[in-house]
Amino acid sequence: MLKGIVTGLGGRGLHWVKEARAHGGCELVAYVEPNEENQRRAVDQHGVPKEKVFPSLDKALKKVKADFVLDVTPPAVHKDIAELAFKTGLHVLGEKPLSDDYKTAMKMVKLGTKAGLKHMITQNYRFSPQPRTTRKLLADDLIGKPGQCDVRFYMCWADFPGSHYVTQPYMLINDMMVHHFDMIRYVLGQDPVAVNATTWNHPWGWHKGDAAHSIVFQFADGLWATHVCVGCAVGSRTSWNGDWRIEGPKGSISWEGDKIRHAHLHRTDKPVDREVPPLQVPPSGKAILDEFFGAIKENREPECSAADNINSLAMVFAAIKSAKEKRWVKLEELA
Predict the structure, then answer these.
(1) Looking at the domain 125-281+314-334, which fold is it?
(2) How many Å apart are CA 174 and CA 154, to the nearest integer?
(3) What is the mean pLDDT of the chain?
(4) pLDDT tens per residue across span 100-150
(5) How far apart are CA 194 and CA 63, in angstroms?
(6) Model confidence over 40-92: pLDDT tens digits?
């Protein structure tokens, strides 16, 4: 059984503690958390053994032997955790985003590759039924070669006064949209080559950074993707996945709430407008751990490896760069 160390016992860290315990494929041998209040909560309310809690990863590594680190620290700390883990011969499953700085993220990818260890990012949205099903439908040529993908997201996002989600610039794109951009890459099976982004705020909103946008991604083969968002929506909401429509020469695939629809109504002898049953997939937390542990045991690259996930992060930083500079940005400019 693989042995793991969890770094970070905030709310998200405790979520992963629960997921790892429920999985059955690993044993958590240590927990790292410098904040005493978080330590007490983990011990008193979540059954984390007090003797297994350490204030830093290096102190934990002096006491226990492990196979991997499950890193749930703030993005600015991810590189330090990964670097120490790789030096010690440990694989890393890191909470998204890979980093809050693109050049730092590139360095992290190189560190993991050089160490020959598995480095996977927890892009959990792509493991849900809608993207898994839609990717298969496109691979089966249901609507032909896609020409356009439109995503709409309306949500009362991060209504936490004083949090970094509310006070820092471009947090909606930086923290939330990495999920959607990663799904766009996964579902369409392509990486964009250029982006044009416009962002703004609404007078009733609660974010200091822009919380609404219209973003266009251009792909090399003529495919286009748009992403329109209002993060301070106070009316009806989309799902967290957003509402999608993918258009091809033989029809469309759309996401409406938690439903998937396929339609072909024009220029066809067999009109169709139907709901598509989703694939049965495991919950995303289990699926991520299954993939990570499988990659370690089978000595292969995991889905959402850092080397692949850097392309989702590139969409984030290129979109922000476009919004700041008010121009089309080629993703190769980030290299």
Answers:
(1) Dihydrodipicolinate Reductase; domain 2 (3.30.360)
(2) 16
(3) 97
(4) 999 999 999 999 999 999 999 999 999 999 999 999 999 999 999 999 999
(5) 48
(6) 999 999 999 999 999 999 999 999 999 999 999 999 999 999 999 999 999 99
Q: Quick check: 172 and 157 in contact, CB under 8 A?
A: yes
Residue 149, beta-bridge partner list? 225, 246
Nearest to 143 by CA among 294, 3, 223, 246: 246
Q: What is the domain partition of the chain in residue ranges?
A: 2-117, 125-281+314-334
CA separation, residue 87 to residues 21, 286, 298, 299 (Å):
26, 27, 21, 19
Q: Which two tokens stand for residue 277?
A: 């049953």
The pLDDT of residue 220 is 96
What's the angle, vertex CA 164, arms to CA 160 and CA 169, rounded to 5?
115
Task: Give the strand order in the sheet containing 212-218.
Answer: 272-275, 259-264, 251-256, 243-248, 148-154, 224-230, 212-218, 194-200, 329-330
Residue range 2-117, CATH number? 3.40.50.720
* Average pLDDT, integer, range 245-270: 97
216 in Cβ contact with 113 (< 8 Å): no
The secondary structure of 224-282 as a DSSP string is EEEEEEETB--S----TT-EEEEEETTEEEEEETTEEEEEE-SS-SS-EEEEPPPP---
Per-residue confidence at 323, pLDDT binned at 50, 70, 90?
very high
